[in-house]
Design a protein that fits this description.
- The complex is a heterodimer of chains A (341) and B (329).
- Helices cover 75% and strands 0% of the residues of chain A.
- By secondary structure, chain A is mainly alpha-helical.
- Chain A has 14 helices and no strands.
- Chain B is globular.
- Chain B is mainly alpha-helical and 329 residues long.
- Helix content of chain B is 74%, strand content 0%.
- Chain B contains 14 helices and no strands.
- Chain B has a single domain, classed as ABC transporter involved in vitamin B12 uptake, BtuC.
- The chains are: A mainly alpha (341), B mainly alpha (329).
Chain lengths: 341, 329
């Protein structure tokens, strides 16, 4: 085992597979719940019968045509946001560096709003635009962390991100005032929801998510080395500049895809790595592996809650994630010392 | 103690405010000349002009003036108490919480109190929570601010929930509150704000010496004879009250509480807490931002909160990102 080779590392000997299996099992449960429960009139037992292929026509339709696409989109969104958060936090060494908090999602959302105002309709174009917006946001964040003194000051970075988010939201509101037709479409985007999105959106984002996963497989090892410090990483034969560039690109791909799918969802990229790190310890590779089941479980779980909490109406998913995420933010800050990565 | 430079600054800001007031009154769908505006205010214009100025526009301008002054004073006060220029009510989530409560009152969730009372309750609740979470550090340190960001996010989410649960008419009525606009004001709230602002200003003037000593370290302030705890509590209470009342009139108009005290501090003699100058600057900012929002894209009206966010955010970003962390506190 790897652990035997590193006797000094106490944390690394923490059991890793039990939490991974538990998270996977939890994810299965949430998927089942997502298929069985909804705000509509189809009851859980009807839906179960439909899954067992002897239900009513209506239940079958609701489960396969409404709940299944929604579940899939929530899963992919959660995967993308969780991984993006873990990567960004590891690279900036800042436990609060979350794409939503730092304005990356808002940048993506603003780009989409602008594209809608200018008349964009095709799904592919929207995805591309969302990714471009996210890339710009990411580049800004990286530039900001390179500013002297700011890199070691998580809270100032978050405050800057909150300001940027506020600015972009104000600009988005301006766009919405300009054009009523665009406003209706934009409003559909910016609340953050996985309901009623066509599966074609998913196909449009799939290539970039696949590319991002490949990139993660490439950068995971160098990134773990960078956690030891840039000099150590250089000594181990890695190129920090190149790695940083690749990670920025990967985060932009992931956040852009997630925003295109579900709108700007704040706090997911904070909560998921926070949970994953609690079980994985400081090794970014283990954290990333744990994010794979935890991210989808968190977003899908929040979506199930959003359907049930106000039934028969639905609550926007973004509201639920904010309500879950804000206490986690407080918990991280409240912790006796600011955990450093 | 009369102070030449501060008196000069206050006079200049007062002049700016009067200019902004008169231009605001004169500008709109019906353009009135500045001279006619003054005549209408004095009460001897033709009935048409009199109606436009005194009936239609005056109440809006007064609402903007009072809320701008209240927000700026609250911001200046909280910055002094926290010894951190970033600690303004907007940034630490008090605005958002007050908005959430005011919206609750408008859409009829929970108690049927007036928006002013609900906004006050919201502001007080947010401050109490932020304090509780900040723990032993009090208002100093960044933990307070991050706690505020979290509270602001929760309050924003709650506002959205309420807006999504009620009938569309009620939601539309409450919408201006969520972005900050002078359209949503009720006469009663403006009256309450006016009384609160006047009372708060008097109390603060009588406390000005104690507030000035708060800029030093605790030990120095105590040695100078300041009752630290009492001053802090009164200051914080007034800041919360002013914010809550202002939000009940104009919604969460962000960044006036940051920008106006900045300008006042830059102009006034250092060493004093420039409350009067901040209030005058805040009122002017609010009127100018509202004027811009009304005229830039007329007939489309842009809520004043959006204008202040677009103008103020780059400045705040510049403060945050500039590479000299020492000047932050």
């Amino acid at each position: 085992m790897l652990n035997a080779l590193s006797p000094t590392s106490v944390v690394a000997s923490r059991a890793f597979f039990p939490p991974l299996l538990a998270a996977g099992f939890l994810l299965l449960l949430v998927v089942l719940a997502s298929l069985l429960y909804g705000a509509g009139p189809v009851s859980a037992s009807d839906a179960f019968a439909a899954l067992m292929a002897n239900g009513t026509e209506e239940a079958w339709f609701v489960v396969t045509e409404l709940r299944l696409p929604r579940t899939t989109i929530a899963l992919v969104t959660g995967l993308a946001l969780g991984l993006a958060g873990a990567l960004l936090q590891s690279m900036t060494r800042n436990p609060l560096a979350e794409p939503g908090l730092l304005g990356v999602s808002a940048g993506s959302g603003f780009a989409v709003a602008l594209a809608i105002l200018l008349g964009a309709t095709t799904t592919t174009l929207t995805t591309l635009v969302a990714q471009l917006g996210a890339l710009t946001g990411c580049a800004l964040v990286i530039a900001a962390t390179r500013v002297q003194g700011l890199g070691n000051d998580p809270v100032r970075l978050v405050l800057a991100g909150a300001t940027l988010t506020g600015l972009l939201l104000a600009l988005t509101s301006m766009l919405m005032l300009m054009d009523q037709r665009a406003a209706d479409e934009i409003r559909f985007w910016i609340t953050g929801s996985v309901a009623g999105k066509p599966l074609s959106m998913l196909w449009a984002t799939l290539p970039s998510i696949t590319l991002a996963l490949v990139l993660i497989a490439i950068v995971a090892r160098p990134l773990a080395a960078m956690a030891l410090g840039e000099k150590a990483a250089v000594g181990l034969g890695h190129h920090p500049g190149r790695i940083r560039f690749l990670i920025t690109f990967t985060v932009a791909l992931l956040v852009g895809s997630a925003t295109a799918l579900a709108g700007p969802l704040i706090f997911v990229g904070l909560v998921v790595p926070f949970i994953a790190r609690a079980f994985s310890g400081p090794d970014i590779r283990k954290t990333l592996w744990l994010c794979v089941p935890v991210g989808p479980a968190v977003v899908l779980g929040a979506d199930v809650v959003s359907r049930l909490i106000a039934a028969p109406a639905e609550m926007p998913l973004g509201v639920v994630t904010a309500l879950i995420g804000a206490p986690v933010l407080l918990a991280i800050v409240r912790a006796g010392r600011m955990p450093s990565l | 103690m009369p102070d030449k430079r501060n008196a000069l600054v206050n006079t200049a800001l007062l002049g700016l405010l009067m200019l902004a007031t008169i231009i605001s009154l004169a500008t709109g769908t019906v353009q009135v000349s500045l001279f006619d505006t003054l005549r209408a205010l004095a009460g001897n214009a033709d009935p048409m002009t009199d109606f436009v100025i005194n009936e239609l526009r005056l109440s809006r301008v007064v609402a903007g003036l009072l809320s701008g002054a209240a927000l700026a004073m609250a911001g200046c006060l909280m910055q002094t108490l926290a010894r951190n220029r970033l600690a303004t009510p907007g940034i630490i989530g008090i605005d958002n919480a007050a908005t959430a409560f005011a919206v609750a009152s408008v859409v009829g969730v929970g108690l049927s109190l007036a928006p002013s009372a609900m906004a006050l309750a919201g502001a007080a609740a947010a401050t109490a929570i932020a304090f509780g979470l900040a723990g032993a550090n009090g208002t100093r340190g960044y933990r307070f601010i991050v706690a505020g960001i979290g509270i602001g996010a929760i309050a924003g989410a709650v506002t959205q929930v309420m807006l999504s649960r009620v009938a569309i008419d009620a939601a539309n009525a409450a919408y201006p509150w969520t972005v900050g606009s002078l359209n949503a004001r009720s006469g009663q709230s403006v009256l309450v704000l006016g009384i609160g602002l006047a009372a708060g200003y008097l109390v603060l003037m009588s406390l000005s010496r104690a507030l000035n000593t708060l800029q030093f370290t605790d030990a120095v302030a105590i040695a100078l004879g300041t009752r630290l705890k009492a001053t802090r509590m009164i200051g914080l209470g007034l800041s919360v009250m002013l914010t809550g009342l202002a939000v009940s009139v104009c919604g969460p108009v962000g960044l006036i509480a940051l920008l106006a005290p900045e300008l006042a501090r830059a102009l006034c003699r250092p060493g004093k807490v420039p409350l009067t100058a901040a209030a005058l600057a805040g009122a002017s900012f609010m009127l100018i931002a509202d004027l811009l929002g009304r005229t830039l894209f007329a007939p489309l009206e842009i809520p004043v909160g959006i204008i202040t966010a677009i103008v103020g955010s780059p400045y705040l970003l510049w403060i945050l990102l500039r590479p000299s962390p020492r000047s932050l506190t």
